[in-house]
């Protein structure tokens, strides 16, 4: 616990933290009070409507989100940090190609961001002496977009992600701390009357400005959902096998985004691989090749489920039909059901093409 020392110049300390953050490769650092305010009521209403789907942990940990001091006792301040990750500007626009959310094509951001935050905390301790803190990167119930907004790192876009004049291709991380640093001022919302993200969403998951129904969102369906993907959404998923970037790709502010940190450069050709190539991976290959990548946490079964759906949406071909049939022999019941759906789609495609 940090003893509040009247001789410490907390404003100067904040600037030192910002400088140290820059040297560690953070794109921006800001400070907010550990009070999520009105955002808590918004979260509770969203949960009450069931918009979180099967993400039970969202409801279970709502109180921890609302009260940072319950997660880390003594917390009065949130240091909010952003890391740019845009790996390239290629788009997987061929239906036989696997579309993987850009954030997941390289190293696991949880580890990269958290280890940098740890280094930042070590630097603070060198300057200010021992202090109470805990670092997070999408790894605990933290209202990170709200704190980043309060800390002046950007505003909440209509797609609910943090948006800034440098775009939205950014990871966020936080340090909860007992240091009474002076907070930064929030910046204005610059979405104006634009509704590009609402119109671009393939499943219409952005049900109103600033409101996403996770149950319709392709990121939720391909990553968080562990059972069958509802049939109504399968044709709309297209070739997206892990996450979806459409609401970011259409955003005018992302024209100003810079290429991000080399840590997140694509591995194993995840930016250009074909669906058939990835569908052929054994469980061992999946685990080995995706070690240190966020995709690995969904496991091989969901990976096959997602790719089966994308193959069903691809133009009919004998190679696809063969791959689906071969995989069905040793697949789980859940994956077999998605393969059967994909084969029916392939049949419809080939009938339509004749």
From TrEMBL:
Q: In which pathway does it act?
A: tRNA modification; tRNA-queuosine biosynthesis
Q: Which Pfam families match?
A: Fer4_16, QueG_DUF1730
Database matches in SUPFAM superfamilies: 4Fe-4S ferredoxins
The protein's required cofactor(s) are namely: [4Fe-4S] cluster; cob(II)alamin
User: In its keyword annotation, does this UniProt entry include Disulfide bond?
Assistant: no
Binding locations of [4Fe-4S] cluster 1? 191, 194, 197, 251
Alphabetized, the UniProt keywords read: 4Fe-4S, Cobalamin, Cobalt, Cytoplasm, Iron, Iron-sulfur, Metal-binding, Oxidoreductase, Queuosine biosynthesis, tRNA processing
User: Where on this chain does cob(II)alamin bind?
Assistant: 65, 138, 162, 172, 219, 244-245
Q: Which domain of life is it from?
A: Bacteria
Question: Quaternary arrangement and interactors, per the entry?
Answer: Monomer.
Recorded family membership: Belongs to the QueG family.
Q: Sorted alphabetically, which PANTHER family does this protein's record hold? A: EPOXYQUEUOSINE REDUCTASE (PTHR30002:SF4)
Output this protein's name.
Answer: Epoxyqueuosine reductase
Chain's gene name: queG
């Amino acid at each position: 616990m940090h003893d509040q020392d009247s001789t410490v110049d907390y404003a100067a300390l904040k600037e030192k933290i910002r400088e140290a953050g820059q040297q560690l490769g953070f794109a921006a650092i800001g400070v907010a009070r550990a009070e999520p305010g009105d955002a808590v009521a918004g979260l509770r209403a969203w949960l009450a409507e069931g918009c979180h789907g099967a993400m039970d942990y969202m409801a279970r940990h709502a109180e921890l989100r609302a009260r940072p001091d319950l997660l880390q006792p003594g917390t009065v301040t949130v240091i909010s940090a952003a890391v740019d990750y845009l790996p390239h500007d290629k788009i997987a626009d061929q239906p036989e190609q696997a579309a993987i959310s850009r954030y997941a094509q390289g190293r696991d951001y949880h580890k990269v961001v958290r280890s940098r935050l740890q280094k930042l905390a070590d630097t603070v301790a060198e300057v200010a002496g021992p202090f109470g803190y805990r670092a997070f990167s999408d790894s605990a119930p933290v209202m990170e977009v709200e704190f980043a907004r309060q800390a002046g790192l950007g505003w909440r876009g209509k797609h609910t992600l943090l948006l800034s004049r440098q775009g939205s291709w950014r990871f966020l991380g936080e340090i909860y701390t007992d240091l009474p640093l002076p907070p930064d001022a929030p910046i204005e919302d610059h979405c104006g009357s634009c509704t590009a993200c609402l119109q671009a969403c393939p499943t219409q998951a952005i049900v109103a400005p600033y409101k996403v129904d996770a149950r319709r969102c392709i990121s939720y369906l391909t990553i968080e959902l562990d059972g069958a993907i509802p049939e109504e959404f399968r044709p709309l998923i297209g070739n997206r096998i892990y996450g979806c970037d459409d609401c970011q790709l259409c955003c005018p502010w992302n024209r100003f985004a810079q290429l991000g940190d080399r840590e997140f450069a694509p591995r194993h050709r995840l930016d250009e691989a074909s669906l058939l190539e990835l569908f052929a991976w054994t469980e061992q290959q999946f685990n080995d090749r995706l070690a240190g990548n966020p995709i690995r946490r969904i496991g091989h079964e969901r990976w096959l489920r997602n790719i089966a759906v994308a193959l069903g949406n691809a133009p009919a071909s004998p190679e696809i039909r063969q791959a689906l049939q071969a995989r069905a022999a040793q697949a789980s019941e859940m994956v077999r059901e998605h393969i059967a759906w994909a084969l029916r789609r392939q049949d419809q495609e080939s009938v339509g093409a004749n």
